[in-house]
Amino acid sequence: GFEVEVAANGAVAEYLLLRQNFDLGVLDLGLPLVDGLTVLKRVRAARPTMPMMVLTALDGLDDRVAGLNAGADDYLTKPFDFPELEARIRALLRRTRIGGGPVQQMGRLSFDRDARRAAIGSDVVELSPREWMLLDRLLAQRDKVVTKDQIAESWAVDRSESNPGSIEVYIHRLRRKLDGSGLAIRTVRGLGYLLESET
After folding, report:
1. Ramachandran category for residue 190: left, alpha or beta (phi over 0 → left; psi -120 to 50 → alpha)
2. Can you give the pTM of this predicted structure?
3. Could you tell me which residues are beta bridge partners of residue 196?
4. What is the mean pLDDT of residues 34-51?
5. Alpha carbon separation from 125 to 76, 135, 139, 180 (Å, rounded)
6. What is the CATH number of domain 10-97?
């Protein structure tokens, strides 16, 4: 079986998906308050590696394409049978766990998304929620530039801390905490930040 968290509207769904560490998200596009497509785009920006399944009554080609382009990994139209939903969830989880499971290794850093645990060797690295989201984003785009806009989008649930100055503060803190990991966060002037192995 699965342990399930239910959200009554899009605002709650977005909050939960960005603040908690789920193996998979199942999102109805017809959510009240904030529509599912908007939630999907925001969650995908913040959690690029989390598998997302979309449920919807809209079964037109354009609707399916819009959902997949927004970041859905699978798409199921209503009405559907629950055995099919469960089978698709299991298939998605299998696909995302191929190739090493949820624990990522880069340099001396190990990053376990399921357990929300980061460590350098055997030493646990204590991270605030914002530092965790930032490291998650940098690791997901390792060796690629992550822009300040992308970081701000990841923190959209609390825009008061999404200004460029506060991003630099969190980058500075994260650099200190990654000391000894064999990794470096490089500033790419005018673009953003790059997580790479130290040479």
Report:
1. left
2. 0.51
3. 184
4. 86
5. 39, 11, 15, 11
6. 3.40.50.2300
